């Protein structure tokens, strides 16, 4: 009998195109991925990958098995949906992954709303990368993923086996030490902060690219200290080491920094929730999805009044 977990891994390999990318997307080592795929080859009795010293690609048999796997995963989703529909009350376990700043902002309202469903259990896991979360949704390892997108371009509602729901646009705000002189103002311009020391994520990170767009548009050049993680950056701002711009959801509930509106039109980040299209009929998944929508709307109402 073929191991479904290994089939999911093969399916992800087909989507990613390499063992290294599959390892990154699934949060495993390249060695572990290679071993699992080799074990699947033993189960099938045929070569699924054509390996060279530097790469691997699907054989004809591998491509056929990937096609079968797509139907298998759809059938598993259909079976879960069919059985879940027997009960009008949402029940069971729904696994969600999210990046920390959104998890903290939305977790409270979601948990309170879901208390009315005693047989429904939501498990919230920390997201490491968007690609990893999408891979885990595709493979069926998790049910829903909260992801952010800094491109400024709306994603299509359906991409392959996945459905994307746009939750909110999370605006960018200026974040300063509480005792900074400019914290006395309610609204700031980027030029007022041009001479400050800035704290930002490393080059290549999505939030840094958004900051770079702002600087280019306003002709700003400023000294930057680079750190990974929005929470780390905001903590350093609180210690008086510099200023930054950050998504409102990441900074709004912090009491140790001053959060101010910015005059410039900053695109911010779009937040989506993603699930397998085949899961659309599962009451438990749809209940959590609805709770996410409602929590996000409530939060953004507060942002508009900020």
From TrEMBL:
Entries under InterPro entries matching the protein: LysR_HTH_N, LysR_subst-bd, WH-like_DNA-bd_sf, WH_DNA-bd_sf
Keyword hit for Signal: no
Signal peptide: none
Alphabetical UniProt keywords: DNA-binding, Transcription, Transcription regulation
Xref: PANTHER family: LYSR SUBSTRATE-BINDING (PTHR30346:SF29), TRANSCRIPTIONAL DUAL REGULATOR HCAR-RELATED (PTHR30346)
Protein name: DNA-binding transcriptional LysR family regulator
Family assignment from sequence similarity: Belongs to the LysR transcriptional regulatory family.
Organism name: Glycomyces lechevalierae
Every HTH lysR-type domain range: 2-59
GO cellular component terms listed in the entry, alphabetical order: protein-DNA complex
């Amino acid at each position: 009998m073929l191991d479904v977990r290994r089939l999911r891994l093969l399916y992800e390999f087909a989507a990613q195109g390499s063992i290294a990318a599959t390892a990154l997307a699934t949060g495993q080592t390249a060695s572990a991925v290679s071993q699992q795929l080799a074990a699947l080859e033993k189960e099938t009795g045929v070569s699924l990958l054509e390996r060279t010293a530097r790469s691997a690609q699907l054989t004809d048999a591998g491509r056929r098995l990937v096609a079968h796997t797509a139907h298998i995963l759809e059938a598993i989703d259909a079976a879960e949906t069919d059985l879940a529909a027997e009960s009008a009350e949402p029940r069971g376990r729904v696994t969600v992954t999210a990046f920390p700043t959104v998890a903290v902002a939305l977790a409270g309202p979601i948990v309170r709303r879901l208390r009315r469903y005693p047989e429904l259990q939501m498990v919230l896991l920390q997201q490491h990368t968007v690609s990893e979360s999408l891979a885990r949704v595709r493979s069926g390892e998790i049910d829903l993923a909260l992801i952010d997108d800094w491109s400024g371009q709306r994603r299509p509602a359906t991409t392959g086996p996945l459905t994307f729901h746009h939750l909110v646009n999370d605006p960018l705000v200026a974040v300063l030490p509480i005792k900074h002189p400019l914290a006395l103002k309610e609204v700031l311009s980027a030029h007022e902060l041009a001479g400050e020391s800035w704290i930002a994520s490393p080059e290549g990170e999505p939030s840094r690219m958004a900051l770079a767009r702002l600087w280019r548009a306003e002709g700003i050049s400023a000294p930057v200290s680079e750190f990974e993680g929005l929470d780390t950056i905001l903590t350093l701002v609180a210690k008086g080491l510099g200023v930054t711009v950050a998504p409102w959801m990441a900074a709004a509930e912090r009491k140790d920094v001053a959060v101010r509106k910015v005059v410039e039109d900053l695109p911010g980040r779009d937040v989506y929730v993603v699930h397998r299209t085949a899961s659309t009929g599962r009451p438990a998944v749809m209940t959590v999805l609805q709770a996410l929508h409602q929590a996000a709307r409530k939060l953004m109402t507060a942002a508009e009044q900020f």
